[in-house]
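#structure-requests
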Amino acid sequence: MDEILSRDFESIYSEVRHVIENARDSIYRNINFNMVLAYWNIGKIIVEEEQKGSNRAEYGTYLLKLLAERLTDEFGRGFTLTNLRYMRQFYFAFPIHHALRDELSWTHYRLLLKVGKEDARSFYLVETAKNKWSTRELERQMDSLLYERLALSKDPAEVKKLSTQGQLIKTSKDLIKDPYILEFLGIKQQQNFLEKDLEDLLISRLQEFLLELGAGFAFVDRQKRITVDGDHYYIDLVFYNYILKCFVLIDLKLGKLTHQDIGQIDFYVRYFEKEEKQPGDNPTIGLILCSNKNEAMVKYTLLNESKNLFASKYKLYLPSEEELKKELTRERELIEQEKRLANGE
């Protein structure tokens, strides 16, 4: 009897605990969002008063200073002059309060205010809510220019979808970024390391790597051994993407991409298609992560023909916004040039 009661009790306790945790989460989220709405309304009042009170810049400065002094005396440090300026900027950046997401905290919105482009800011808003990014994760994605990297090879209509719907993963190409930013590994520039060192670090920082890979990735195996005619081969990293329902094989390479690397990843993908893919799975994707990608090698090999083989560069440091944008612009020009050649222009 005690054994049966114990099993029943554990089940009941688990359900009750789940109810309590959901209630606490809901209360915390509601409190957080009510404060966000309060800050939005404060920003609205300030802007409307400035617009009807005076066109002079001195008026707005004086108004904020006076408000900050009185509010700080009565309600504390949350209403300093700096914070009131953020609230004012908040209203300008998000003039429609129905577009605000209750999944985001005030700290999230403070970070989003740093994004100058409206489309990019909207993208990060949608992705943060959809993926439940912490403020630290959001900041990292913004610093690595995730929006610009994803928008690189998309036409204007698809780029617009990014800003309104976030990242839509429908094809293998939608999963791939170029470059991948691996600054979280802590490898210093000019530091000597082996492919095994890179793999070890990626596994040790798997949570950060999964964030960089994107939505839907689950880790499956490292150094996955496959055997063909008595010979053993080892795939560096194996993931499964539950959105596309397919395996993703990653081969890590130091230095320049070679045709042998491409042949190797093609071999791995073909093996998985025959031996590992389950009924209902979509075609396996192969990705070579290399420090130097030769565009001619991409153009004249299977990478240019296959829809499921890719090569992307990785960077071991967080580049400056100017540096990364320059590289993305160069990549876009190469893509546009290939399109024009393909159309006989």
